[in-house]
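Input chain follows. Return structure tokens only.
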Amino acid sequence: MDANENVKIKVHVIPNSKENKIDGYNEWKKAIVVRVKAPASEGKANRELEKFLSKFFESDVTIVSGKKSRDKVVLIKCSEKKVYDKLRRI
């Protein structure tokens, strides 16, 4: 894998959920819907989102925009093919 391979995806986050999970794709927002258990206060949901997506994609994940919004853009440090393959299974 090329060290410069990075993928940005749009994510819509739903905090205070019963479990951490990817809950499909929102056609209207053109974003992956992710539910996280953590509340949307003091950055807790953001940290939980990064941790959960890092584990899901088995790669480093960083929020690059939308830190104070439910609609975010995250940077995944892996190939586009790997991201596509992981998301295709949900």
